[in-house]
Design goal:
The protein has 16 helices and 24 strands. By secondary structure, it is of the alpha+beta class. It has three domains: 214 residues, 3-Layer(bba) Sandwich (FAD/NAD(P)-binding domain); 131 residues, D-Amino Acid Oxidase, Chain A, domain 2 (2-Layer Sandwich); 93 residues, Alpha-Beta Plaits (2-Layer Sandwich). Strands 1, 2, 8, 9, 10, 13, 19 and 20 form an eight-stranded mixed beta sheet that branches. Strands 6-5-15-16-17-14-18 form a seven-stranded mixed beta sheet. Strands 3-7-4 form a three-stranded antiparallel beta sheet, with no helix packed on it. The longest helix is centred in the middle third of the chain and has 20 residues. The two termini are 45 Å apart. Keywords: 4Fe-4S, Electron transport, FAD, Flavoprotein, Iron, Iron-sulfur, Metal-binding, Oxidoreductase, Transport, Ubiquinone. One of its GO terms (molecular function) is 4 iron, 4 sulfur cluster binding. This is Electron transfer flavoprotein-ubiquinone oxidoreductase.
Length: 557
């Protein structure tokens, strides 16, 4: 008898993979609709982190637009959005100085007044409590590692909770084959570059006719600073130094809560120079005279990293397929110029829930929820993304200075003329992996040594992410061809995995004579950012789920 047949199964109306803003909002909306209709709908939500929020990392300045719709009395219910934005600053940095860009020159939607600085991880923890009160079954520490199919080829469910397989593949004493969770519909809400979403997009050709998805890597630290330096409600963003004009990215810094400063750096992953290290650019950035004073005298208390979807409207894949839908960052609804996506993720979860509820009430299951796609196109999410659709392509084609100027002009036009753009809709030309240049065409970058006060090394940073994995399990970072890192990536690109990974997972080791290079994967360090799956120029690294509960355990991120 095969392993698949030995698994127990549980039946639900809807199975949701991922306990982020999209998945939780979908679960809550389903239960709200059932309560209003006086019926029952069974909902199971699985989350690979050790708890809901453990793997959630975002800036975050949160637009409460979707939350206002989902839970109008969220303030009374104690949602952890305690610090409203009171001051917006946008700076252009040079090596030593700054130029403040006037906020009045930016379209109204770029302003953050009415938004809140918060920990998105804590917001999802609160949303999970609301969902459980409504009867949603939430299973943290359960990784959805495989999919289950109906005979007609539609998605029937997912396999969760496979544990106890050793590195060499044998079954340990604690082996569990996992369980199948079956749903009339399955919502994929894994976040950026989810392993199931990636397979589904390929299987059903959901990206046909779309631009390739684009990404950034966001690296973040949480600091606690002296009270006399704290400016609650300050939201400061920068662009420029330390990146050159051909490398997109910028910083965020938010003062909130208990003398907290949330500070981070985003590097667009279409960068060309293979010698670039996003982590080290961030550490260098913190030493700038406009930044360092905010942190001096404070203590770094948390660290993490996560990829961000940046393709925008033209990169959104088809959202429905037989048996399921893509919601939130599994599809990519981030508004790059606003540096926000959680409100859009929540709304898409709600839209999918509304259409699934109606379909289930009508006796349907396992078909494509095309109504969700139509609802998205009519929603304020689509309208918001259409307005900013050319900002990212212009940066990619023209560089930061010129691309930023043309992008601002285009956003004003689309804002004032109801979505009309003189550029039409620009496309993204190629994937971020294909954007990587050859090592011989660029000078290696020599980064300053960390001072251990403001700037730090990767390993001490990973320690603050509380990352842990069961050591005796198959590596979840898989190489399609083990020879490629040394035979191809090292001579052609300098093996950039050792540089773009923000957690020291990938190393090239040499013998005492400096010869015989060997590629080493320290999977234990992985913070699940997915950058390697995106940026590897040979597309040889495949990120898969480790045992449930593995990975970072982010507090207040």
């Amino acid at each position: 008898m095969s392993e698949v047949l030995e698994r127990e199964s549980m039946e639900y109306d809807v199975v949701i993979v991922g306990g982020g803003p999209a998945g939780l909002s979908a679960a809550i909306r389903l239960k709200q609709m059932a309560e209003k209709a006086g019926t029952e709908v069974s909902v199971a939500l699985v989350e690979k982190g050790s708890e809901v929020g453990a793997h959630i990392l975002s800036g975050a300045v949160i637009d409460p637009k979707a939350l206002n719709e989902l839970i109008p009395d969220w303030k009374e219910k104690g949602a952890p959005l305690e610090t409203p934005v009171t001051k917006d600053k946008f700076l252009l940095l040079g090596p030593q100085g700054e130029l403040g860009l006037p906020m009045f020159a930016m379209p109204p939607f770029m302003h953050n007044h009415g938004c809140y600085i918060a920990s998105l991880g804590n917001v999802t923890r609160w949303l999970a409590a609301q969902a459980e009160e409504l009867g949603v079954e939430i299973y943290p520490g359960f990784a959805a590692s495989d999919m289950v199919w109906r005979e007609d080829g539609s998605l029937k469910g997912v396999v969760v909770g496979v544990v106890g397989i050793a590195k060499d593949g044998h079954e340990k004493p604690d082996y569990q084959p996992g369980m199948e969770l079956h749903g009339k519909y399955v919502f994929i809400a894994e976040g950026v570059r989810g392993s199931l979403a990636k397979q589904l997009i390929a299987k059903f050709d959901l990206s046909a006719g779309k631009s390739p998805q684009k990404y950034g890597i966001g690296i973040k630290e949480l600091w606690q600073i002296p009270a006399d330096k704290h400016q609650p409600g300050l939201a400061q963003h920068t662009t420029g130094w330390p990146l050159d004009n051909q490398t997109g990215g910028g910083s965020f810094m938010y003062h909130f809560g208990d003398n907290y400063v949330s500070i981070g750096y985003v590097v667009h992953l279409n960068y060309k120079n293979p010698w670039l290290s996003p982590f080290d650019e961030f550490q260098r950035f913190k030493q700038h005279p406009s930044v360092r004073p905010h942190l001096e005298g404070g203590k770094r208390i948390a660290y993490g990293a996560r990829a961000i979807t940046e393709g925008g409207y033209q990169s959104i894949p088809k959202l429905s397929f037989p048996g399921g839908v893509l919601i939130g960052c599994s599809a990519g609804f981030v508004n790059v110029p606003r540096i926000k996506g959680s409100h859009n993720a929540m709304k898409t979860g709600m839209l999918a829930a509304e259409e699934a509820f109606k379909a289930i009430a009508a006796g349907r299951e396992g078909d494509a929820l095309v109504e969700y796609e139509a609802a998205f196109e009519k929603s304020w999410v689509a309208k918001e993304l259409k307005v900013v659709r050319n900002a990212k392509p212009l940066l990619g084609k023209l560089g930061t200075a010129l691309g930023g100027a043309f992008g601002m002009f285009d956003m004003w036009c689309t804002h004032l003329f109801g979505g009309f753009s003189f550029f039409g809709t620009l496309k993204h030309d190629k994937t971020d992996a294909a954007s990587t240049g050859l090592a011989k065409d660029y000078e290696p970058i020599v980064y300053p040594k960390p001072d251990g006060v403001i700037s730090f090394d990767k390993l001490s940073s990973v320690f603050l992410s509380a990352t842990n994995h069961e050591e005796d399990q198959p590596a979840h970072l898989k190489l399609k061809d083990p020879s490629i890192p040394i035979d191809v990536n090292l001579p052609k690109y300098g093996e950039p995995a050792r540089l773009y990974c923000p957690a020291g997972v990938y190393e090239v080791l040499y013998d005492e004579q400096g010869a015989n290079p060997k590629f080493q994967i320290n999977a234990q360090n992985c913070v699940h950012c997915k950058t390697c799956d995106i940026k590897d120029p040979s597309q040889n690294i495949v990120w898969t789920t480790p045992e449930g509960g593995g990975g970072p355990n982010y507090p207040n991120m």
